[in-house]
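Run: sequence + S-adenosylmethionine -> complex structure.
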Amino acid sequence: MISKRIRKIASLIGNEESVLDIGCDHGYLAMQLRQNGNSARIICCDNKIGPLNNARKNLIAYDGIEYVLGNGAEKIAETVDTVVMSGLGYKTVIGIITASRAYFDSCGRMIIQINTCQDQLRRWLTENGFLIADEQMVYDYKYYQIMDVRKGEQKLSEMEIRYGPVLLERRDKTFISYLHDRIENRRRILREIDPANADYQKIVEQIREIESLL
Ligand SMILES: C[S@@+](CC[C@H](N)C(=O)[O-])C[C@H]1O[C@@H](n2cnc3c(N)ncnc32)[C@H](O)[C@@H]1O
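>> structure
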């Protein structure tokens, strides 16, 4: 069963859009795209042979998929409509974009899903000539943020950096549940630490900030 997170990413990609999946691992994104009816070029790339071979095996029934063993986009010559980087670390994503900047500038957009440090990624992107055109939040045993990133200029407030400009604007019910979850998580920490702890007041302020968004 392909995860809800991967299905959500696939749902953001049209059937005519060519795709480069960097860090394809099992190849499930390509599988979901083909099952959705995508018939365009798909390039599955991974920097390790084991995952790339897994993708090959899992995708044996599907045509038109290319497999590239390589670091980020370094071995990719053809530009695509959409580059997906999901499940990678924040520093890895920035390293990949920086190493192949001209390539990313010539592609249509990136869909990026990282598990932590989304605020740092937003800051880096908007300081480096990218903008966040759309954001989606999906709950799949935990909350995942998916960003649709394009070339362009964008200025974000500190709140937008921390919570996401589109997520804040749209306030859909998954995002609101996420905010409640964050408050509960912080209240749990407060119950476990001494009020004299240096972090106590910081966490109280974080709770107030999140409550102000509800
Ligand atoms: C945690 S898996 C994520 C798989 C899939 N994208 C997902 O969202 O479920 C990360 C994959 O990225 C690959 N990877 C890590 N760094 C990479 C890089 N610099 N270039 C290409 N692939 C990379 C790993 O080998 C691994 O298969």
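>> summary
The two ends are 34 Å apart (CA to CA). The chain has two domains: 4-155, 171-214.
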